[in-house]
Amino acid sequence: MRKRFWLLMAVVALAVTVPSGCGGSSDMMAPTGGGAADVVITINGMNGALSFSPNPASVQVGQTVAWHNGDSLTHTATADGGGFNTGNIAGGATSVPIAMGSVGAFGYHCNIHPSMTGTLNVTN
Predict the structure, then answer these.
(1) Distance separating alpha carbons of residues 123 and 57, to the nearest angstrom
(2) Which domains does the chain have, with CATH numbers?
């Protein structure tokens, strides 16, 4: 019974982080359900524009991105316009890979520590 509860909670948490199509950004990202990401961005801690490495990071449309928290504090990677959100990433953990579906330069930040900023460039 507990396994079902935690599985249900994980599904609900994932559903909360996936955009519902508001504002036409639903194709910007999609969780891939696991596996290795094409690009991994490291969270270094609260260092402003140096909080994420590499910064800026570059991927192509369709490639996946995951954020690895190299800090001891919990952080997120959340698009400034709301196009993606990793949810909380505990120290030492890595987010679920997210497939990028739209071309553009996407600023993002940590929801917990908004001074932490990064840019993700998505190209064709």
Answers:
(1) 11
(2) 24-123 (2.60.40.420)
